[in-house]
């Protein structure tokens, strides 16, 4: 595949930005491009309506292995390893699948002691359409803005006794929450500075094993071949979080000299040549088309964001479940314009089991950023909560899913089905 000169410049700029972020407070992104116009205040972007709900429930599917069996052939890695105490005699992938992303170990620093502030305080620096990762546990709802995660990639946190790592790989647009409880201990994660299929390779500080962020698989070390547990999370607009959770908590900006609110990957989600991706992108979709993905141990299915945006609602069957996918406009891309708040509108997607008390409901988008079921005419929000009507206070069961770029999804799960194909 031939790359354009413009993208070669973008690739060099990305590399330089990553190295700078590893060593010092970064300069503004080096590539100037036309920025998208601000989002309009269309009726579809109305914030959520506050109500009272019971505990959130979720269903997690298994993930097909992207690596093989554990390899113990004694072949040393073809790169420097002196900064790691990892057991490099154990791995599940070939060494030539792992590349340097530029920064060294912990050059992109994880946030290990996160602090939080109120939505009222965060409202001074977050715009309504900016994307945040929502994580809920117990009575606590927390927002992790991508404007922070784009510079740190990992937050090691604990929410009401639940150790969790909130992760974001900008190169794959992959936001994933992991349970840090593993093998009778609580793991803390950092960045190795390495990539596989353009995705972040993490390491845990307890065994220094290497883990694939995209799949939660142990790649190298003591835990090679093991699997982390996914926890439910959602990317939604800041306006929706603060409206739904006025008493929620928001990750505060660390005092580390980063240009929070700026995107160091200007125009990245329009490229046809993803950074440090050595494979051939699956031609069924553009390389960086966003997809919502579902998996089992043996299968995967992807739903393109543009199709979801066009329809608003998609109903389907997956792994024996009747499911519904919601799409709501009003959430910016973190990887488009120089200022994340000015990125193009890619919307937010959520996936739920559409059965309530054993009955499958039929949904449609109502043009106001909410959804209505045909059976009871109840109104539902993007979090799967019935906010008015006979079912008010009911929550749909969330199906843990993944919002990623297509090239990475297809690289890790080449057997994937593509909805609508």
Structure characteristics:
421 residues, mainly beta, 2 domains, 5-stranded mixed β-sheet, 5-stranded antiparallel β-sheet, 6 helices, globular, disordered N terminus
What does this protein structure show overall?
The chain has 421 residues and is mostly beta strands. The protein folds into two domains: 45-60 and 261-418, no CATH class; 95-235, no CATH class. 12% of the residues lie in helices and 30% in strands. The strands form eight sheets. Strands 1-29-22-21-20 form a five-stranded mixed β-sheet. The longest helix is centred in the N-terminal third of the chain and has 19 residues, at 5-23. 49% of the residues are buried.
Short description:
With 421 residues, the protein is mainly beta. Helices cover 12% and strands 30% of the residues.
Tell me the overall shape. Answer: globular
Biggest sheet, open or closed, and with what strands and sense? 5 strands, mixed
User: How many extended strands?
Assistant: 31
Terminal residue distance: 24 Å
Radius of gyration: 21 Å
The main sheet orders its strands as 1-29-22-21-20
The assembly state of the depicted protein chains is single chain
**Average pLDDT reading:** 89
List the topology elements.
Blueprint: H1 5-23, E1 58-59, E2 98-100, E3 116-117, H2 119-122, E4 131-137, E5 140-145, H3 146-152, E6 154-159, E7 162-169, E8 174-179, E9 181-182, E10 185-186, E11 189-196, E12 199-204, E13 210-212, E14 218-220, E15 230-231, E16 234-237, H4 238-244, E17 249-251, E18 290-295, E19 300-304, H5 305-311, E20 313-318, E21 321-328, E22 348-353, E23 355-356, E24 359-360, E25 363-365, E26 371-373, E27 379-380, E28 386-388, E29 397-399, E30 402-405, H6 406-412, E31 417-418
Parallel strand pairs: 1-29, 5-17, 19-31
Antiparallel strand pairs: 2-11, 3-17, 4-5, 4-16, 6-7, 7-8, 8-15, 9-10, 11-12, 12-13, 13-14, 18-19, 18-30, 20-21, 21-22, 22-29, 23-24, 25-26, 26-27, 27-28
């Amino acid at each position: 595949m031939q790359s354009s000169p413009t993208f070669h410049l973008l690739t060099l700029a990305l590399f330089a930005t990553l190295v700078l972020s590893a060593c010092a407070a970064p300069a503004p992104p080096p590539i100037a491009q036309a920025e998208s116009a601000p989002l309009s205040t269309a009726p579809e972007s109305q914030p959520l309506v506050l109500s009272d709900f019971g505990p959130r429930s979720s269903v997690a599917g298994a993930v097909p292995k992207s690596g093989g069996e554990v390899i113990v052939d004694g072949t040393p890695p073809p790169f420097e390893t002196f900064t790691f105490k990892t057991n490099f005699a154990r791995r599940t992938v070939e060494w030539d699948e792992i590349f340097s992303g530029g920064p060294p170990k912990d050059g992109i620093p994880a946030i290990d002691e996160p602090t939080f502030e109120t939505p009222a305080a965060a409202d001074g620096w977050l715009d309504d359409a900016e994307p945040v990762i929502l994580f809920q546990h117990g009575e606590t709802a927390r927002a992790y803005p991508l404007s922070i995660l784009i510079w740190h990639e990992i937050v090691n946190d604990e929410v009401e006794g639940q150790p969790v790592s909130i992760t974001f790989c900008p190169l794959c647009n992959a936001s994933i929450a992991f349970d840090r409880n593993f093998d009778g201990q609580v793991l803390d994660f950092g960045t190795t500075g390495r990539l596989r299929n353009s995705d972040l390779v993490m390491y845990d500080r307890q065994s220094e094993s290497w883990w694939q962020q995209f799949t939660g698989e142990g790649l190298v070390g003591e835990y090679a071949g093991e699997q982390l547990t996914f926890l439910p999370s959602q990317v939604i607009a800041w306006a929706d979080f603060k409206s739904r959770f006025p008493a929620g908590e928001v990750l505060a900006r660390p005092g580390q000299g980063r240009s929070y609110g700026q995107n160091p990957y200007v125009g990245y989600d329009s490229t046809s040549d993803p950074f440090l991706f050595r494979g051939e992108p699956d031609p069924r979709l553009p390389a960086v088309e966003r997809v919502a993905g579902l998996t089992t141990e043996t299968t995967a299915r992807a739903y393109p964001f543009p199709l979801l945006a066009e329809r608003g609602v998609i109903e389907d069957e997956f792994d024996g479940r009747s499911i519904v996918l919601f799409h709501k406009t009003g959430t910016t891309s973190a990887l488009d314009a120089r200022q994340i708040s000015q990125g193009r509108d890619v919307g937010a997607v959520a996936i739920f089991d559409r059965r309530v008390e054993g009955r499958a409901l039929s949904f449609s988008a109502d043009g106001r950023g909410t959804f209505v079921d045909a059976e009871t005419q109840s109104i539902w929000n993007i979090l799967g909560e019935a906010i008015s009507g006979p079912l008010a206070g009911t929550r749909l069961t969330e199906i843990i899913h993944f919002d990623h770029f297509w090239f990475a999804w297809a690289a890790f799960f080449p057997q994937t089905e593509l909805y609508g194909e």
